[in-house]
What we know:
The chain contains 2 helices and 15 strands. The protein is mainly beta. The strands form 3 sheets. Strands 1, 3, 4, 6, 9, 12, 13 and 15 form an 8-stranded antiparallel sheet that branches. A 5-stranded antiparallel sheet has the order 2-5-14-7-8, with no helix packed on it. β3 (82-84) and β4 form a beta hairpin. The relative contact order is 0.20. Magnesium ion binds at residues 127-129, 139-140, 237, 239.
Amino acid sequence: xxxxxxxxxxxxxxxxxxxxxxxxxxxTELPPEATEFYEPVPPKVKAGEATNTAPSDAxxxxxxxxxxxxxxxxxxxxxxxxxEENILTVNPGTGGIKTKENFxxxxxxxxxRSPSEIQGDGQGRGNSGVIIMEKYEVQILDxxxxxxxxxxxxxxxxxxxxxxxxxxxxxxxxxxxDIIFTAPRFNQxxxxxxxxxxxxxxxxxxxxxxxxxxxxTEYIGIPNYTKHEEKxxxxxxxxxxxxxxxxxxxxxxx
Length: 254
Ligand code: MG
């Protein structure tokens, strides 16, 4: 008890200089007010009607109507993925799409569905991906009774971390991803200060628990960090399969 109290006082002195007086005198009994903060005030956010609808402060990236938030990932042109009945579907061979806006730390929600008609197997079946900062891929794959390397199945951090569970729904059924991402930090000389971290819920189930990424996604070879911008686009992958999406929104975390 005494040890924890000392640590507590030390950490308080780091939070606010106004408490240094308490920190210097260990015998002083702390008033309750010493551990009560009033600022910053958390902003009010109205929750969505259901967990998969966007909260009031989210940026809507796709609501079913258009792709105005997106460009073709290769050449920056308007994407030619298909929108039908408010559902976005990869137009295979036309290239991935990426957000016009750049994002760093974020909470990202999206829903995806692999084709109901099964074609191909392994990595060739319902493959797409959410490539955060155009570098860090959360795999999208039809992993419903479809064997592949576990660190390449749905909800894996591709080629790095298999999911804690396979929560993939049957082909043609909708899956949700809720992703909490912390971007890596670099100093001005390019040295890595802190690696990227990611938490993923797949259909509400925790599948990546604050995983520390080893570097950007590499198909071949060992991942390695190199300095990059603080914010970069979110990229949805065209891997040649007509995977569908709906309800994509993001909350920037500062
Ligand atoms: Mg992929």
